[in-house]
Write a structure and sequence with these properties.
Rossmann fold, Elongation Factor Tu (Ef-tu), domain 3, 4 domains, six-stranded mixed β-sheet, 29 strands, elongated
């Protein structure tokens, strides 16, 4: 592969100015043998973007080996490519026009290398899609249109190549243009231009020839210059996916540094920032970096750490953004376009891992809207699985909320990969939040209630017998603040009053029903099992008391849903990890254990979970 480096471009002299030019990524895509490499080679040659003497060197090599020269040979550097006669990797090369510098991504067209093409196209801002005028529209031509649509690439030029093989026929060109325009309209794409070209002869690549006087539109080079450059990452809203939170305890250093790489935008000391999906907010107190002068601002592409004016509890995987800029979206259900690469089909009811930004969360396939079959090129409805090389529009559900952007708005935080058995098995883009799908937990509870076999002893009979209403009482707050002591004393008070009550401690749970949990899924699976266990206790009429450190809003929702139809009460102790609107009772960490336990018991009485005479 001949690859002209940016430094070499800038060192070239002649007709091109030495000023710094705008840069743009373009993907070249099309069916195998439709002439992508030839077009790229011709662009390099006709814009004088090759290293000096390179064109003559390749021509001499061809003459020595008694082979006719092809412009595609300028890119054929991979041994496999030369042996098979097809492009098998996403080659990158550089050239420049008078307007801007281009990075061309030569994406493969053969079905076995579609995954390489996807990774290549994912970096592109616009695309040139080739169709062979002699062969016509092929199945990969349509497939590649789908993939460009999936990746959110909307600036497209269609080059109808090899016009020399059809005697430069306008009728042939018009037929291809009409048929492919109709196809693109079905997938909500519109080509900027259809351009008849002969890459081998140079017709309408960078210059005009007399072979197609009937065509009055732009050349390929002119069409590239018409593409609109995407906003620079630094000019987009701030997106800083949180990689980790670092704490320093030596030498009385109490800083908590939120670390990550800024994907887009910029941040300054004093900015009010919000973290999604937790919705916590604070102000940037300082910008930290190792062994550098004091910084007051940082920009897209930089890895930084920030300290906050108010210490808040956040987790890796959240996205930090500025309060004065558009917010990312947050949801547990994502409507996505997916390209599946796994050896095994993607199926319902199987747990996968979603990697989106810095978040790593379990995810399930919940709904398949449509599938493009890669072998038959047919759009299928009502599919129950997604096969290898299928392109699918579907709905995924994550175990907990994730923050993201639509790929059409901020691509960096709108693309994802899926892991199956520790290997990348798929990738795609987020189209929107899914709003018409019942979540997994609620669906599970509905199925549980339908299948639950209860005796003739109703909840009302139980309440009348034991003179109390069952409920789950969760005491939440930071670790080490005394939650367990309050829970134990509350249990003793209610037990002494003759109530049916039980305190389920975390350590007891992990020694019993949760002893099989691994560190990888400890927290999420513990929450699920606590919810299921709570349902058993409260269904039997008991008041169950449990403690959870740093309870998140989504975890509370899971517990409440799993504990249905019984009630769930939440007591917040100390600094807030939940908003006040989610708490039934808020206690100060300065309150004594006795006073706190008594206040919770009073609340239970006030709300009729205990009889009035208990007061």
């Amino acid at each position: 592969m001949v690859q002209l480096k940016e430094k070499e471009i800038k060192e070239k002299s002649g007709t091109v100015s030495q000023r710094e030019l705008q840069k743009m990524n373009i993907v070249i895509i099309g069916h195998v043998d439709h002439g992508k490499s030839t077009l790229v080679g011709r662009l390099l040659a006709d814009t004088h973007s090759l290293p000096e003497g390179k064109l003559e060197e390749v021509k001499a090599r061809c003459a020595k080996n008694a082979r006719p020269f092809e412009y595609a040979f300028l890119l054929d550097a991979l041994k496999d490519e030369q042996a098979q006669g097809i492009t098998i990797d996403s080659a990158r090369c550089f050239f420049r026009s008078d307007k801007r510098e281009y990075i061309l991504i030569d994406a493969p067209g053969h079905i076995e290398f579609l995954k390489n093409m996807v990774s290549g196209a994912a970096r592109a801002e616009a695309a040139v899609l080739l169709i062979d005028a002699h062969e016509g529209i092929q199945e990969n031509s349509r497939r590649h249109g789908y993939l460009l649509s999936m990746l959110g690439i909307r600036q497209i030029v269609v080059a109808v190549n090899k016009m020399d093989l059809v005697d430069y026929s306008q009728d042939v060109f018009n037929k291809v243009q009409q048929e492919y325009t109709e196809f693109l309209s079905q997938i909500q794409i519109r080509a900027e231009h259809f351009i008849p070209v002969s890459a081998r002869n140079g017709d309408l690549i960078a210059d005009r020839q007399k072979n197609m006087d009937w065509y009055e539109g732009p050349t390929i080079l002119q069409a590239l210059d018409e593409f609109q450059k995407e906003a620079a990452p630094v000019d987009q809203p701030l997106r800083l996916p949180v990689q980790d939170i670092y704490k320093f305890t030596s030498q009385n250093d109490d800083r908590r540094i939120v670390a990550g790489q800024i994907e887009t935008g910029q941040v300054h000391v004093g900015d009010e920032v919000i973290f999604y999906p937790s919705k916590k907010r604070s102000k940037v107190a300082s910008i930290e970096a190792f062994n550098t002068p004091v910084q007051t601002e940082s920009f897209a592409g930089q890895s930084v750490g920030v300290t906050l004016a108010e210490q808040i509890y956040i987790q890796p995987g959240e996205i930090m953004f500025r309060a004065d800029e558009p917010a990312p979206k947050t949801s547990t259900q994502l409507k996505i376009n997916l390209f599946w690469l796994g050896k095994e089909p993607m199926i319902f009811n199987k747990r996968y891992l979603l990697k989106l930004g810095t978040s790593r969360v379990p995810v399930w396939l919940r709904k398949i809207n449509t599938v493009l079959d890669a072998s038959e090129l047919s759009t299928e409805l009502n599919r129950r699985h997604i096969e290898r090389h299928d392109v699918a529009e579907c709905v995924l559900e994550t175990l907990k909320p994730v923050a993201f952007d639509l790929t059409t708005e901020i691509a960096q935080t709108g693309r994802f990969v899926l892991i199956d058995n520790y290997q990348i098995a798929g990738g795609g883009v987020v189209l929107d939040m899914a709003t018409d799908q019942i979540d997994l937990t609620a669906e599970h509870v509905q199925q549980r209630e339908r299948n639950w076999r209860r005796s003739r002893i109703t909840s009302h009979l139980r309440q009348s017998r034991i003179d109390q209403q069952s409920t789950l009482v969760i005491i939440s707050g930071p670790a080490g603040i005394g939650k367990s002591e309050i829970a134990q004393l509350l249990e003793e008070k209610l037990f002494d009053a003759g109530k049916q009550v039980y305190y389920l401690g975390l350590q007891n749970s992990l020694l019993g029903i949760d002893s099989d949990l691994s560190n990888e899924n400890l927290r999420d699976e513990y929450i699920r099992r606590l919810g299921e266990t709570s349902h058993l206790f409260t269904d039997a009429g008991l008041i169950l008391i449990a403690t959870v450190s740093d309870l998140a809003e989504y975890e509370l929702n899971v517990l409440k849903t799993l504990n249905q139809p019984s009630d769930t009460l939440v007591v917040g102790l100390g600094s807030k990890t939940l908003s006040a609107g989610l708490l039934d009772l808020e206690l100060s960490s300065a309150a004594s254990t006795e006073k706190a336990a008594t206040r919770v018991a009073d609340m239970l009485t006030e709300r009729r979970y205990l009889p009035e005479y208990y007061l």
